[in-house]
Amino acid sequence: MGISLSSADRRAGLAGRTPSVATLCSHSSLQIFYGARQEGLPTLGLAIGPPHRYYDAFPLARPDRFLSVPKVDQLPTVAPELKRSGAIVIPHGSFVEYLGPERFAQMDVPVFGNRAVIAWESDRRKEREWLELAHVSMPRRFEDASEVDGPAIVKYYGAKGGKGFFLAKNRESLKDFRPTGPYVIQEYVLGTRYYVHFFYSPLSDRGYRVGHGSLELLGMDRRDEANIDELYKLGAQEELLKAGIRPTFVVTGNVPVVLRESLLPKVFDAAARIVERSIELFGGMVGPFCLEGIMTEDFDFKVFEISTRIVAGTNLFTSGSPYSDYVAPGLSMGRRIAQEIQRGVALDRLDEILS
Ligand code: AMP
Known about the structure:
Blueprint lengths: L6 H5 L8 E5 L4 H10 L4 E6 L16 E5 L9 H6 L2 E3 L3 H7 L1 H5 L11 H6 L1 H10 L7 E2 L9 E5 L9 E3 L14 E5 L4 E10 L6 E3 L2 E15 L5 H10 L6 E8 L7 H19 L4 E9 L5 E7 L25 H15 L8
Parallel strand pairs: 1-2, 1-4, 2-3
Antiparallel strand pairs: 5-8, 6-7, 6-8, 9-11, 9-13, 10-11, 11-12, 13-14
The site of adenosine monophosphate has 17 residues, from β6, β8, β11, β13 and β14.
């Protein structure tokens, strides 16, 4: 194992050919394959075990071919075949989480975006350092349970789908918490949640300029989270506990939302500063990312998480969103990724968007 080749070596197989788009068959793969097809790129689905039959039900989003491995940790073994096929791998939340951030970062294939971002996102402390350097408003963090002076949430590292999180109404109730892995304790923020889907293009020279490229807002959603949703979560927790049920934040679906137009500058400002800081810290984030935050009643947008790749909430907008329609009618995040690849090929600048 280990990283044997540089990013330039990994891209060598792409020279002079139409790249194909490959991703793990899950999460947002239908959207990614459909978007690639709309832009005329061939597609390749990576399946764990036999491909799911649901792809047969969606002919426009079914990949042109599948590559199957029996187990997820065997995915790196398909790297030579992916390179022979001129594939570009599109990361999504499940891909990185199932394989593990470290193994994903070491996959010996061209990956869309800057894989250096994974180290900054998968460790909640590093993620916070990045966002703090970008002067983004965030929930307070408590180094120790003894510092807690109000409602708090204890969260584990990585995108665990909100499993095993612990909500504490006050310091006293934190004594019941038994950690099962690395965690952080944060202020529990009261407000309304927004998951804001951005795309940063280093290749674009128009629009909302950030760094050498531009920032696009393509959509927004809110997640449905079981078993605790939606109102009065702390109160609900007590009722659940009385019934012997531990509250969880397991994502079960997504609903579309829009933000008051007057609040858009807040999310754009935060996103722009995060991109600028990413350029200084690790050469820049590229492509889709999602700012996940809570708008408080006094309009402070507190970012509790950043996802640095396509999020499943974008699946709501496969034929456009109330925001992406003002960028280009019917534009999905999956299609935007394919467009960026096509642009990279046309301008001979793939090196700026792949790693
Ligand atoms: P995360 O793993 O950070 O995306 O958090 C999962 C879910 O926990 C979020 O979708 C929110 O519903 C909730 N959450 C996370 N952090 C906070 C916070 N500081 N205050 C209130 N709710 C939070």
